[in-house]
Amino acid sequence: SQTIHQWPATLVQPVGSPLSLECTVEGTSNPNLYWYRQAAGRGLQLLFYSVGIGQISSEVPQNLSASRPQDRQFILSSKKLLLSDSGFYLCAWSAALNEQYFGPGTRLTVT
Amino acid sequence: KQEVTQIPAALSVPEGENLVLNCSFTDSAIYNLQWFRQDPGKGLTSLLLIQSSQREQTSGRLNASLDKSSGRSTLYIAASQPGDSATYLCAVRPKERYQKVTFGIGTKLQVIP
Predict the structure, then answer these.
(1) Which residues, other chains included, contact A34 with Cβ-Cβ below 8 Å and sequence gap of 6+?
(2) Cβ contact B11:B21 at 8 Å
(3) How far is A22 from chain B (nearest CA, A)?
């Protein structure tokens, strides 16, 4: 069966520090991968999605970036965090346009 | 631009009651619609996926229906239990392959023992 992992589960970082969140998927090949951010009282905001290694599409221009160095690995990064980057970050995968499956999420607090 | 609305934003019911959660969307050109539940501080758990050609899907005490022409989906929960307490979100995937999935903000359900 397929599983999706995210780490770390929680993170507290000062403003201006770098960020690296990792997501890995097991039990499937060539998944579509997604990074979302969820803010309180707001819907999920799609940040990046990827249909293959090295193929990244950005939905929202900001100081975040994403990379997909391996088929089942998706990384969200920032060189310098802003206070507004605080939130709950969710990674998801799907087989083509089918059902999306989400990871457990990372709670990021920028201080 | 697709917009997804979920009403009510919050709902409180006594245990054992049957209930309906609503999801409406503005663009009927969808590929599928998915219902999720989210527990506090957790990721989303997929409940049901309805393809655009389908009218409903069932899983246990859950039944989701889709009326594409009117832009509506409902999630029916039978014989609610305290463990059903969570936020329920619907998400619409468009027909256009590289357009993004649009999520509603969700309905927060509390089932009172």
Answers:
(1) A46, A48, A49, A50, A91, A92, A93, A94, A100
(2) yes
(3) 15
Chain B residues with CB under 8 Å of A43 CB are 4, 89, 102-106
Cα-flanking dihedrals φ and ψ of residue B80, to 5°?
-60, 150
Nearest C-alpha in A relative to B5: A43
- State residue A61's pLDDT score: 64
Q: What residue of B is the nearest CA neighbor of A48? A: B100
Separation in Å, CA of A49 to nearest CA in chain B: 9
Confidence of residue A39 (pLDDT cuts 50, 70, 90): confident
Q: How far apart are CA A109 and CA B13, in angstroms?
A: 34
What are the phi and psi torsion angles at A14 (to 5°)? Answer: -80, 155
How far, in Å, CA of A92 to CA of A32, rounded?
A: 8
State the pLDDT at residue A59: 83
Does residue A102 contact residue A90 with C-beta atoms inside 8 Å? Answer: yes
CA-nearest of B97, B94, B98 to B3 is B94
- CA dist., res. B14 & res. B111, Å (int): 6
Task: Please judge whether B32 and A104 are an interchain contact, meaning their C-beta atoms are less than 8 angstroms apart.
Answer: no
Arithmetic mean of pLDDT over chain A: 93
**Measured distance CA(A65)–CA(A20) in Å, rounded:** 10
Per-residue confidence (pLDDT) for residue A98, from 0 to 100: 86
Cβ within 8 Å, pair B91-A98 = no
Question: How many beta-carbon contacts under 8 Å exist across A and B?
Answer: 49
